[in-house]
Specification:
Layout (H helix, E strand, L loop, with lengths): L7 H15 L14 H31 L5 H26 L1 H18 L3 H40 L18 H48 L10 H57 L4 H33 L1 H6 L8 H18 L6 E2 L3 E2 L2 H18 L1
Antiparallel strand pairs: 1-2
Length: about 400
């Protein structure tokens, strides 16, 4: 692959792409990884095998609804949680894999092409900091939920002498204590961690991508605001006006490219956004029902609460980031107005004013990312979706 000029955003996304690649997602980076070729060939084969086995793993969980008969109330509830969440969560990897080429192209634009023209270092630092915070918090919440479910199953084994069943599949039966059955449970438990690594990689990719997109609008706003500095130089007025006009036209091109990147990001992430909305509503209803009906122990409560927190955090980060894209895009027209057009005089002023008005008109059109094709992703809609889960639960109980 070609090599591109470096910057902090590119260095950051190299690490993100490498991490998600090791988590089992496709290699969508714009350059070659600094890994041995033999390792990547072997790892690609291993990843393909595991990804196909995970389809079988999810299928065995679904069949368990019809074959597992001697389940406790908690095991029935856990099976329902996994049966609802796992197919949706694993579809995220499928969606991103299907859009691999589109993702590589939009990354090239966001981290290289647009940054070549203008890159506000302060905005870049904010983007990296926010991406790290959001993605780290989300992955940590997922790991915490898995830890509590594991610990709860271990305590259940110690207290009751039951078999170790964190995930419930059609085989082995929960009452089967044979060596082969115990070995199968361990294998499925390990597959569960492989499964969650794919989910974590998908979450990290979407969060970092949407954070970078929203900060691209912030970067573009900084570009237009800095055009005013042209008139503080010692050039002749005519030269300054020409520089401003040329610079404003460059800003228009950047805006058009950013809007194109927004459409591409929406296409890449739309399946994940839609799946997360459905998952949030269904899983919160099931988890709240679980808290009402399950055994009231501290570990069980922590396991349920950590799962609910992971769902709320993941949905929140998706919708908050998407909402930030809308907010930052809406502020762009004000930056254009403050770009310094009023410093132009005479015939140049007439040309510039027409250019600024038309550009501001286009910038004032709302930029909205949607889930399920109809739900605007924003802070307000996030609250509405969370409240809807409580509404559904109140109808059931």
């Amino acid at each position: 692959m070609a090599s591109y000029e470096g910057n902090k955003t590119k260095d950051f996304f190299y690490k993100v792409a490498l991490l998600t690649y090791l988590f089992g997602l496709p290699n969508f980076w714009i350059e070659d990884f600094k890994l041995p070729k033999w390792f990547m060939r072997s790892f690609d084969i291993f990843t393909k095998i595991i990804n196909n086995v995970l389809y079988f793993f999810i299928l065995m969980e679904m069949i368990a609804f019809f074959t597992q008969e001697n389940l406790s109330e908690k095991q029935k509830s856990d099976l329902l949680v996994y049966g609802i969440s796992h197919p949706i969560l694993y579809s995220y990897r499928v969606f991103i894999s299907y859009k691999e080429d589109n993702l590589r192209a939009v990354l090239l634009d966001l981290v290289v092409t647009l940054k070549k023209v203008y890159n506000d270092v302060k905005v870049e630092r904010q983007m990296i900091k926010k991406s790290l915070l959001y993605s780290s918090a989300l992955v940590f919440s997922c790991i915490l939920a898995m830890f509590f479910y594991t610990f709860d199953s271990i305590l259940h084994v110690i207290r009751t002498g039951a078999t170790f069943n964190v995930v419930i599949t059609t085989w082995p039966k929960v009452e089967d204590r044979s060596t082969l059955a115990n070995a199968g449970r361990i294998v499925f438990y390990i597959l569960w961690w492989f499964f969650m690594s794919r989910v974590s990689g998908a979450y990290t990719t979407v969060i970092c991508l949407t954070t970078c997109l929203s900060h691209q609008y912030t970067n573009l706003r900084s570009y237009f605001e800095n055009l005013n500095n042209i008139f503080e130089t010692n050039f002749d007025q005519a030269v300054k006006e020409q520089k401003y006009e040329d610079g404003f036209k460059v800003g228009i091109a950047l805006h058009l490219d950013t809007l194109r990147c927004t459409r591409e990001c929406h296409s890449i992430c739309q399946g994940v956004f839609s799946g997360q909305i459905i998952l949030n509503i269904l899983l919160l209803v099931v988890l709240m029902s679980q808290m009402i009906n399950s055994e009231r122990t501290l570990v069980t409560a922590f396991a349920t609460a950590s799962s609910a927190s992971a769902v709320l955090i993941s949905t929140g980060y998706f919708m908050w980031n998407a909402g930030d894209v809308t907010v930052e895009a809406s502020r762009l027209s004000s930056a254009m107005y403050l770009s310094g057009w009023h410093n132009c005089h005479g015939r140049s002023s007439i040309t510039i004013r027409k250019l600024v008005v038309i550009t501001m008109f286009n910038a004032q059109k709302p930029v909205i990312l949607k889930g399920l094709g109809i739900v605007d992703l924003s802070y307000q809609s996030y609250l509405s979706i969370v409240k809807s889960s409580y509404s559904v639960l109140s109808l059931l109980y």
